[in-house]
From TrEMBL:
Keyword Transmembrane listed: yes
Highest taxon in the source lineage: Bacteria
Transmembrane segments: 7-24, 30-50
Name of the protein described by the UniProt record: Tetratricopeptide repeat protein
Keywords recorded for this protein, A-Z: Membrane, TPR repeat, Transmembrane, Transmembrane helix
InterPro entries reported for this sequence: TPR-like_helical_dom_sf, TPR_rpt
Segments annotated as TPR repeats: 218-251
PANTHER family referenced in this protein's UniProt entry, alphabetically: CELL DIVISION CYCLE 16,23,27, CELL DIVISION CYCLE PROTEIN 27 HOMOLOG
Pfam families, A to Z: TPR_16, TPR_8
Amino acid sequence: MNNLWFALLRIAVPVILIIIAFQFNTWAGWGLLVVYVLVTVYMSRSRWYAARGNMEYTKGNKELALQYFRKAAADPNASSQMICSLGYLLLTQGHWEEAEETIKKARKKAKDRQDVLNAELNLSLVLWKKGEHQEAIELLQKLDNEYKNTVVYGNLGYFLVLDGRLEEALAYNLEAYDFNSGSKSILDNLAQTYYLMEEYNKAKEIYGKLMTMDSTIAETYYYYGLTLLALNEKEKAVEILKKAMEYEVSLISPITKEDIREKLEQVSAS
C-alpha cells in the first residue's frame, strides 16, 4: 500500500506542478512538461532495454537479448527482477561466475518477498550448474521452510531426483503433488521418480496426465518413452521418443538431445 501511494504521488505531484505552471505562464507550463517527459523517459530506459531484451530472447536472438539486458541491469534504476533476468540469461549461456555475481546483486537489491524468492531460486540453479549440488539443495530446503509454492516444490523435487535421493524425492514429490496436482513440473518430478524406482505403472499413470498438458520439455517424453519400453509398449515408446526430439532439454538436465537420438535409433532398430 505504501508503494502504491508513493507511485501515485510521483505522478500526481509533477502533474499538479505543470497545471499550476500553465496557469501562471504558458511557456513555463510547456517547459516544465518537456522536462517532465524527458526525465520520465530517462528514468524508464532500463525498462525499455529489458523489454527489447525480452523481445529478442523470444525470437531466439540470445546474444542480442544479452546485450539489452546488460544495459538494463547497468542502469541505476534497474529493478531486482531485471538484474535477475540478466543473471538467468548468463546462466543459460554458460557464464556461471558472472551469473552468480549478477544474481547476488539482484538479491541485495530485492525490495519484496517475491524478488528475494526469484533471486534465490535462480541462485540455486547457478550452484547446481557449478556442481555445488548439496549447497543448491540446502538453499532450496531453506526456501521450502519459508515459502510454500509450486516453483520451490518443482525445483527442489527435481534436484532430489537428479541427486539420486529417490526415497526422499518420492516423499517430497508426493507432498508437492498434494500441494498442486496440476503443475507440470511437479507431475514430471513424480513420474520420473516412479520410473527410476521401477514403479512403471505408476509412472505411466502420471505421464498420462502430463500428456494432456502439452509439455514442451524433452525429458518428459524421453522418460515416458523409457517407461513404455519397460512395459513392453515399443510402438508407443517410439512415437513418444520421436516427440522428445521436437523439444529442448531443460537447463539442468543431465540428458542431452544426443542421448534421446541414440535411444530412439536403438529402439527403432531392435
